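pinned: reference chain
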Amino acid sequence: MAQSYNRAVRWTRGRFARWAAVVFSVGLIIVFRVAQNTQPEVKEDDRLTIVEVIDGDTVRLRGGDKLRLANIDTPEKGSPLHDEATAFLEKMVLGRKARIEFADKRRDKYGRLLGFIYVDSVSVSEAILENGLAYLLLFKKSELDRPRIKRFLTAQRRAMDNKVGLFSIPHEPESYYIVRHGRFRLHRPGCRSVADLKAGSYRIFQTREEAIYEGYNPCRTCRP
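pinned: its structure tokens
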């Protein structure tokens, strides 16, 4: 009886082992064939293809991400030259073979990619700035030492000298303008962003043009 029981147990175990081996082998074959035949829906390069222009400094990529052009700030919707900036970007990038270089900080707080677009070796951001359709957008002084930012500032200065785009629009002047030390926003003296500043914590400019020429960006609240 014991021998018969042992033989039955060994037979059952052997049968289970053979069954498990077959299942494992079939599983490997299926995985291999699926991996062999499956192709990515979109090539990696295609994921960076620009498929839509959202506004003057933001595009949508085929992979689904939004890309925000770093270090420039075009007019918001409803502001003068918003439509012109958007149309300019569309003309430059849609249907064209573009190259994207990502910024040091890969994404902004909204989850958008940050970078720079080049078409036929032409910097799209420089072209936008030179046509007066954006302001240079900086966050720290060290950025001014970068060759790319130096070219951006030069492009903006050309737009200012030629009085094109944003620099052709008249602004109500103030007796002076304020910039916080360590910041790159230009404010009117009555702006709430610079209320109750302590002596020595800010810099005074006599004209808005003087500040923008150095790379300061007009505040979106007080709109100097």
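why pinned: The chain has two domains: 46-166, 171-218. The two ends are 101 Å apart (CA to CA).
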